[in-house]
Amino acid sequence: MADDSCGAPAQTATPADYDTKGQVVLAGKVTSSDAPLGGAFVRLLDGNGDFTGEVVSSADGDFRFYAAPGNWTVRALHRSGNGEASVTASGPGVHQLAIAVA
């Protein structure tokens, strides 16, 4: 059973050709030692470092956020470690991120 304690929808993989309907989508996978890491709390931080949202990664480590254009940091927190990645989303489409937790 998926952990939905944060109230976010279940996370699934986001293919590169995903129809974003003109929206900015920040998506990716959380890994640990090159294996998918499920159950990580994945946080979206804006360009000022302010918290804007959180989801729990799927059993396969997948996560997805809908955002506005701009600079974003995505941080993964897990009992086995933490990791983060940054992205500049200049416009609509899928912006892929990989987060390695150590």
UniProtKB/TrEMBL annotation:
<protein>
    <recommendedName>
        <fullName>DUF1416 domain-containing protein</fullName>
    </recommendedName>
</protein>
<dbReference type="InterPro" id="IPR010814">
    <property type="entry name" value="DUF1416"/>
</dbReference>
<dbReference type="Pfam" id="PF07210">
    <property type="entry name" value="DUF1416"/>
</dbReference>
